[in-house]
Each structure stands twice: as C-alpha cells, then as structure tokens.
Amino acid sequence: MTEHLDGNVLAGPLSELFRDDMTTAIGRCAHCGDVSVLATALVYDAAPGWCVRCHACGDVLMTLVWAGDRLRIDLRGVTALEVGD
Amino acid sequence: MSIFTRGFSGRGRDDNPALPPGQYLTEDFPVLSAGPTPTVDKADWEFTITTETGETHRWNWEQFMALKIDQVDTDIHCVTRWSKLGTSWRGVSLDTLFADVETSAGYTMAHSYGGYTTNVPLDDLLDGKAWIAFEFDGEDLDPEHGGPARLLVPHLYFWKSAKWVRGLTMMENDDPGFWEQNGYHTYGDPWQEQRYW
What we know:
heterodimer, A: 8% helix, B: six-stranded mixed β-sheet, 2 helices
C-alpha cells in the first residue's frame, strides 16, 4: 500500500515526545555525533533568542526565538531526539 | 484617577523622537551573543569580499588600517528593545572596500569569526550607510563588542552589525543568515519595527 496518511496521525507519538520536561530528552549533534541529554547543552541567551550549542563540539544544536507571542524552534543541528523511561 | 507605571523599562519614545517604536533608551552597552567570544589576533585577522564569480578581495589588518578611516557618530537600536544614542565609532566605509569590487549581485552574507552570519542587501552597505568598525568611544573595540572589527549598519537592528566580521559573500538572492533562519526579520528596519517574520 503506497497511500499516505496526513499529519494528524502524529498527534499521538508527538504528544509522547513533547509530553514533559524536554531538557531530559536525548539529542544527537548533527556535527560531531555526540549523544547527550539536552540539559548538558551550552545555552547562550541572546534574548529574544536562545542559541543552544553542543557541549562536546560547540556547534549549534538549535535556536529558540520568541517572535512576538509565538515561540519558534529551529532544530538545525539535531539529527535525532529521544524520550523514554 | 488611574495611575500607570512604565515599570523599570526606562524612558520610552514619547520622550524622545530619536527612539524608534517599541524601543527604550539605555546608557549601558548590553552584550548579546549567540556563542563564545572568539579570540582574533590582529596578526591573523583578514577581511574578504567574495563576489558571485568567486573573485576574492582581501585585506590584512595593516592593509585595512591604511584605508581611509571615517569618524561615525550614530544611534544604534537592538531588537531586544534597547537603543543607545550618540555612539561614537571609527571604521572603514564599505564604499571604500567595495570601490574595486565588480558585482551584479544585490545581496550580501556577512560571515564572522565564530560562525555567525547575517544577510544584508548591498544597497544598505553603500552610500555612507555602513562601516567595518574597529574603535568605539576612542578605544579599540572590545572583543565582547566584536573586536577587533565588526560590521556597523546602524540604520538596521543591531543583530545585522555582525561582531567579529571576517568577510562578505555576494549573493544573487536574499538568503537568510543565522537568526533570520529562525524568526528574525530578513531586513530589520527599526523604524518599521521589523523584528520578526
């Protein structure tokens, strides 16, 4: 079967991923491959943005920006995110 | 009678027509950075302009300091809502640096030591609107503020004035830079309050 579903089917798995404290999520750095919990990252506060860098290589994992009343996240340097007990 | 307070945000633009909308006056010079401050020795420093054909124009510190130097007195406006009026800089005009550059591309990407980038239209760098600044308030530019040299484009929000600038690359299209990829406005005119896209 080659028919696709629409994005609504992701409501379940994505609510699992983003269900609680994301600083305990494990991410993989796209630059050096380091796999660590987000809480170990280096965060540079340049409000209204935050630049989050890999604790191992210093490359950018993600940026977060408060754009008015909307929060934007750019996961440019994260190739995988993992949550679970 | 209701009494409203401005809180601790400083004096607003109602008091000062030099302040763009949504900005407040500061006497400090806040430091905002997306990463660690790079150590750039003037002996190793260079500034380049690379055109769409791949031709690179290059200046080392000695060659750069031999160019015509401008005194620049200007106001600066940060997207985090502070403005600083009457700042004093010395630097080399981009008109001087582009004098022998042949290009038909309309946009530039500024690249910095440390990896930061920001996009600026070429027209906004020319005609006395932008400099590579190396001195602030009569002193060498502090590394925290972008020394040894930073881009200075004071008519746009200050994230466009890239610290630790090392070069400009000409672009046919207005590709987004570091912050412009995630939320910051592609142009950033403080008088139009172009903070975000």
